[in-house]
Design brief:
Blueprint lengths: L11 H14 L8 E4 L7 H14 L1 E6 L5 H9 L18 E3 L20 E4 L13 E8 L3 E2 L2 E4 L1 H11 L1 H7 L5 E3 L2 E2 L5 E3 L2 E3 L2 E3 L6 E3 L9 E2 L3 H15 L6 E3 L5 E5 L3 E4 L2 E2 L9 E7 L8 H4 L14
């Protein structure tokens, strides 16, 4: 596609147009990400447009529901934004949506994974270990109950990370677009039984379905094997500097009950938290991972073409 902003070998004018649009259109703060939704099963046209607008400009939106929601509501809300194919991962509930809560040690499958503890989670995208045919493109995370303290998230648009890195040196981006940049070793049980094979692929990649930029990444050193060359090491050092000194473009927010994030699998962290002592005070979030992105958001295509409505509309 002529003027494709994420093609390092294309005319750089396409990138410059996209870059100008991105910096001009980026929501300034968390408040600008929020959209109120009266009924998660039937979002109005204005509510839907507002969410898509924010996802187009920031790859994420924070919705605020006006009534309590169950899993059926969350599934319907996702479908309203084109999200239907769930990534039914190892720790998902039987319906494909995961209940994120501190699990009992007796829960054999979840007990070994940090999301099911009260510990902090470092920067990552969800499903970074998935094979190409099951790459996670979107997430819906809904807060049912928040912990008495802690548990806030940092959220960062991968497109902004790409922008910062490309401005520093296109060679850094090129290194992370290599098909062998990042390898996730096999996931095995203690007895050696393999739950998932090794997966290898890029960090940044351009989605062949819509030309949008995607990212798969984990800052956890213990379960990632990086390509051993100077360019990759330089790119990783650049990212580590971002994480040590959080960039002001990262949003910091603690979801409240009835709120949620709908996003194109943005980079995120979670702070450690202190859980409640009773079932009604323990932290609970529902997480749905999807194989498709939020409908109508491919900002890399729409933004740089100058089409009307590419960066606005639907604000509430």
């Amino acid at each position: 596609m002529q003027g494709q902003p994420f093609d390092l070998d294309a005319d750089p004018a396409g990138y410059r147009r996209w870059r100008d649009w991105k910096l001009r259109s980026r929501p300034a703060d968390v408040a600008a990400l929020k959209v109120r939704i009266a009924d998660p099963r039937r979002p109005t046209a204005a509510e839907r447009a507002a969410v898509i607008d924010r996802c187009r400009r920031a790859n994420m939106a924070i919705y605020v529901l006006e009534r309590p929601a169950d899993k059926a509501d969350i599934r319907a809300l996702g479908a309203a934004f084109g999200l239907r194919r769930l990534d039914v991962n190892l720790c998902a509930d039987g319906d494909g949506i995961t209940s994120l809560a501190v699990c009992e040690p007796a829960h054999r499958v979840r007990a070994g994974y940090i999301p099911y503890t009260d510990r902090a989670l470092n920067w990552h995208t969800d499903g970074y270990y998935n094979p190409p045919e099951r790459r996670v493109r979107a997430i819906l995370m809904h807060c049912v109950r928040q912990a008495p303290s802690g548990g806030a998230n940092r959220l960062l648009d991968p497109e902004l990370v790409y922008l910062l890195m490309r401005d520093e040196s296109p060679a850094l981006v090129r290194a992370l677009m290599a098909p062998d940049a990042m390898t996730i070793p096999p996931n095995r049980e203690a007895d050696g039984r393999e739950l998932r094979g090794a997966t290898r692929g890029p960090v940044f990649w351009v989605d062949p379905d819509d030309g949008a930029l995607r990212m798969r990444y984990s800052a956890r050193g213990r379960n990632v094997v990086w390509k051993q060359d100077a360019a990759t090491r330089a790119a990783l050092a650049f990212l580590q500097k971002l994480w040590v000194d959080p960039h002001p473009w990262a949003y910091h927010y603690r979801l409240q009950p009835g709120e949620g994030v709908i996003c194109n699998n943005v980079l995120h962290t979670r702070e450690a938290f202190r859980d409640g002592e009773t079932p009604t005070t323990r932290r609970l979030l529902y997480r749905a991972r999807y194989l498709e992105p939020v409908v109508g958001t491919a900002p890399g295509i729409h933004a740089h073409t100058g089409r009307p409505g590419a960066a606005g509309g639907g604000n509430r």
